[in-house]
Write a structure and sequence with these properties.
Layout (H helix, E strand, L loop, with lengths): L6 H7 L8 E5 L6 H14 L7 E5 L11 H11 L6 E6 L8 H10 L2 E7 L8 H5 L4 E5 L5 H10 L7 H11 L11 H21 L7 H13 L4 E2 L1 H10 L7 H13 L3 E8 L4 E11 L3 H5 L8 H15 L3 E7 L2 E9 L2 E7 L6 H13 L5 E6 L6 E2 L2 E5 H6 L6
Parallel strand pairs: 1-4, 1-5, 2-3, 3-4, 7-9, 11-12, 12-14
Antiparallel strand pairs: 6-8, 7-8, 9-10, 10-11, 13-14
């Protein structure tokens, strides 16, 4: 089977192929972590590494599902180590093994191997591995396909590709889970995404977290998924559930549920950030989906609300490119995002169009209020681009389809 090589993530891993640092790949289920590891293994083979020196255990597959204890994991690895040559050990879905950390640590300490592990959620780094191996692992957080990867993978698969706008609308509604591209029928795509979300809840949430009231939890999930990209305040959320739905729920419980969804990579938190103080602000964070297909798979209304959907695409694209994303606070004004990388900041507004003059003024207001030297971006779907106040007005589809970066 041909495997689409996701070059963006391979570039992140290549410097560590022969390092004793444990390579930890996290991300929502079915985002492509297993294929990424297989791509690494294929690349090693092309570079002359012998088949016998590559150990690959997929703990979700037949023959390995009984490996759920540290002893069983160690026995399975040892069975593959047929000589004393340097080995590359790949373990997929390692969180299936409770208390796996000491085993992985022991092999790392021996120093005769390079270890790659994947997990579907951040519980992977919540235990002994995170505390005991400080500075001794490197983490790659993998996302579903970005739009440029979506186009590249369609070409890789030999699929017919339309114009960028048509493809972009498909990408917004059906999302970027790689296997979705194998289905031509929209209903099949939606069912597949629904099944993925179901697996996340069954295997990464219900099986690992103590959710006492699933009915209430599911209502919280529905609210957050349906309101992605909106500002969320815990007090307001508590009041809504108490008054509108007559469900008594505490802020502490709401906060825990949100943390669970973040850990399972269903949602990503985007906190507010004040540019004047260079500090994160409490309250009214926004939450974005790991993949926009999750929203459309859970809702019968297939219409695109371009505002939050486009924000979600920008958030995921820039996050995957190493930017820390925040909701921007500029005095009394707010811009959609402040993107940070090292000591650089970027002001970002996102809108479907600024063809309407009132919309144009609204989108430029926060950007024009900035008085520092940082770059300012306005992403829209417009083909006619505005030149105003030093703001870079960019067509979002072209920007991502070309795999561009902020400059």
């Amino acid at each position: 089977m041909k495997i689409y090589p996701r070059e963006f993530y391979l570039k992140q891993l290549r410097p560590f192929y022969n390092s004793d640092l444990i390579k930890v790949i996290t991300g929502i289920r079915r985002c492509g972590k297993s294929c990424l590891m297989q791509s690494v293994a294929l690349e090693l083979k092309r570079n002359g590494v012998a088949e016998k020196d590559i150990v690959f255990l997929n703990l979700d597959k037949h023959g390995y599902k009984n490996i759920v204890t540290p002893d069983a994991l160690e026995k399975a690895i040892d069975a593959e180590l047929i000589d004393d040559k340097f080995k590359y050990i790949f373990i997929d879905e390692i969180q299936n093994v409770k208390d796996f950390e000491p085993v992985i640590n022991a092999y790392r300490e021996e120093g005769n191997c390079s270890i790659f592990i994947t997990g579907s959620n951040s519980y992977l780094l919540s235990g002994e591995l995170a505390t005991k191996l400080t500075g001794r692992y490197v983490q790659v957080d993998m996302h579903t396909l970005s739009f440029d990867e979506f186009l590249y993978m369609k070409r890789f698969m030999g699929l017919i590709i339309g114009d960028n706008r048509t493809e972009f609308d498909e990408y917004l509604t059906c999302g970027g889970f790689p296997k979705v591209l194998e289905f031509s029928d929209t209903d099949a795509k939606v069912k597949y995404i629904s099944d993925i979300v179901g697996q996340v809840f069954d295997k990464d949430i219900y099986a690992r977290c103590k959710i006492r009231n699933r009915i209430v939890f599911d209502k919280v999930v529905t609210y957050l998924v349906n309101n992605f990209g909106s500002r969320i305040n815990l007090q307001t959320l508590e009041n809504y559930f108490r008054s509108a739905l007559h469900l008594p729920i505490k802020k502490e419980t709401l906060n825990r549920y949100i943390d669970v969804l973040n850990s399972a990579r269903i949602l990503y938190k985007c906190p507010r950030f004040d540019m004047k103080s260079k500090r994160s602000l409490m309250g009214q964070s926004k939450y974005y989906l790991a993949d926009t297909g999750i929203y459309f798979a859970r809702n019968v209304d297939g219409r695109i609300n371009y505002g939050p959907v486009l924000e979600n695409v920008v958030y995921n694209y820039l996050s995957s490119h190493g930017y820390t994303m925040s909701v921007g606070q500029i005095g009394s004004l707010e811009c959609d995002f402040i993107a940070r990388k090292q000591n650089e900041y970027f002001y970002i507004q996102v809108a479907m169009t600024i063809a309407d003059r009132n919309t144009e003024e609204r989108e430029y207001r926060a950007l024009s209020a900035t008085k520092d030297h940082y770059h300012r971006y306005l992403f829209t779907l417009d083909t006619l681009l505005q030149k105003r106040d030093g703001v870079k007005h960019v067509n979002l589809i072209d920007f991502i389809a070309d795999g561009r970066d902020l400059i």
